[in-house]
Input
Amino acid sequence: MAASAPAATVGAAAVWGQLMRQRRGLLGLGMIVVLALVAILAPWLAPHDPFSTSRNAFLPPGSAGHLLGTDHLGRDVLSGVIYGSRVSLIVGLAAAFTATVIGILIGAVSGFFGGLVDEILMRITELFQIIPRFVLALIVVAFFGSGLFNLILVIGILSWPQTARLVRSQFLRHRTLPYVDAARVLGMRPVRIIFREILPNVLAPVIVVASLDIAQAILLEASLGFFGLGDPNLRSWGGMLNTAQGFVQRAWWMSVFPGVAISLAVLGFNLFGDGLNDATDPRLRSGS
Amino acid sequence: MRTPLVLLALTLAWLFGHALAQVETPTPGGTAIVVLGSDPEHLNAAISTGYPIGAVGASLYSALVYLDRDGVPRGELAESWTVSDDDLVYTFTLRSATFHDGTPVTSADVVFTMEEVLAPNHGRFLNAYRNIESITAPDDATVVIELTQPYAPLINLLTVFEAPILPKHVFEGTDPLTNPANEAPIGSGPFRFVEWVRGERVTLERFEDYFLDNALLDRLIYRVVPQDAARSVALEVGEADVVWGFYMPPADLDRLDANPNIEVWKGLTIPSLYFVFVNTDNPALADARVRQALMFAIDREQIVEQAQGGLGEVAGGPFGAGFAYAYDEATDYRTLYPYDPERARELLAEAGVGDLTLTFVYDSARGAFAAAAEIMRDNLRQVGITLNVQPVERSVMVERVYGRDYDLSMQSFTSSGDPAIGYHRIYLSAERGANFVNATGYANPEVDELLNAAAGLADRDARADAYAEVMAILAQDVPTLPIFDELSTQAAAANLRGLLVRFDQRDGLEFAWLAR
Output
């Protein structure tokens, strides 16, 4: 059946080739790779245990053994930033994955069946879109606790509408195409048509949105942490900013370094997402 | 011969003059501005325990007694008092004093204020009133308070913060909550009311017919500065003269301390005890050796230094170190339980406790608790205990801790000026079940008996003996882990003298004066 897919569908190898030709996307990819390496190798990279306190509070950056200084409890800032990458990356990836799965399910059902089902699902989607995401996340986390799992779930559940609308519009277009008609005529069940026939053909733009979702999820997790609603048993960038609030004048390094880390991580996924978007857009592709 | 003599005379004159300058004599006059963090809701200190109302009230009103710098009760309106042998009858003899409107203060005003205004409306006075059988006035200058059972803290609950005396002729037959005098108060204190600009300032002036030594300042202005940072700035630019610890942004203390025109003071006034409740429902924590191990494992000095910014003193016992009669050097926790992770590991091994994970619940709004939790997490990790830190909203904290759904919880209890009011509730078994009392499940009949006896002993030496016995038991049982006593602070203009003469820093501003 894949042979009858429309020409707009782009092969993975082709996308990769396009991406490699783009400086921005490549830069973003590079930043993500570095972030991932830091997260994976944290125990070997961090000079100190991130939770280890000491009497050496407020050491400035460049102090012996503390490249980025220490915080108000004598904890090493560099080690905190390194371990914080794990929280950001895990929440970013898992929440974006959750959002994408929900978005695909709702978008596919809505676009494929249309009619009343579409009507109801789209109104729900709009509802989720108009609710201020951050405020709702704040309330939900305050109520149900701010463990890592809760954070992932809340951010994921609040982030799916864009994916759902995108998938729906793709399905609306695809469901009238000949290859889908052919599948119907062959007697395929809807579930099989949705997941085996149409979905693989609309996945490229979904991945673009997903990579942008990761950036948003990282930012949302950091914001929650900044408001004191991060996982209290993990060292996260947002949590570090939260404690740094009281010491901005006294110890600027406590807020600057986690802040820079958040910015770089978000920038990396945004650049990568943009690059991926350009690479999969047939209008921008060279030779098309 | 002449020149040396002149020189000698000049030198002597210089030395003499210098010596005179060194010994300053308080001079009357001038205006001092005291900062309040929020506008008082009204100015009737007898119907509210609010901090700003108490502040203005301390200068406006007088009471039977005041607490001196060391917390010892002294007569104010009461010239003297006697206590019956059974500790049940207190007889006060009043001085001759007048209200700001010229009417004399009599025993009828005292009885009326206590029974009609304070008892139904003042939270802390109610603590005393529960033990009061009757308040009577045999003559104009005598007040007799009869108790239902001996209650040592009684005298401490008769100060201007707990029992300011109102004029009966103004309040009789009215609703004390809506009386117009709440906005334009009439008291018998060292300062009288001039004006109140809502949200901005309350202005008082010296009351010339005060029954004790007249105040030195001409005027006293309580200025409302709602923003933390603006208070320090007001002090720095000379727009305010005093900021109390209650309103002090701790982060600004070092900056103010470095300013030669500002005097920063840190010390114990009315101590608050910061401690950790240990839930003995947890089988591991039911073993006293494990609780002792926690005591050895926690570096309280680091917590004071880093979580409290140095504004604390490592606690010396289950009632802190703030009360001389409720502290015993023999059971000082600082010597009994020094920071010693090795000893903690030994005790845990003895108790047969291996890897232990404990939940640590605290009020998420308290920054010092969060920092202390991080230090304890690190401390306890060194002895093989994992801390699962759970910051929750205050209401959830209350529900979890007093519903006994926790392992460890950091708390701060204020002494309210007497361990029997503030701290007994932490250890008494009868108190279990209610909020803000014993949440450890600790029940020791001997401790109960000794504490209840101590609460009834008016004699401080006898009380100290009872506490020494209690502390010997608690030092072994450690149902709570006392961490530190909170220190108060104050920042004031360096030329404002005569501050901090009473137990509560809000009290005694009649002794303040401006050096020129």
Observations:
- The mean pLDDT of chain B is 91.
- The longest helix of chain B spans residues 2-22.
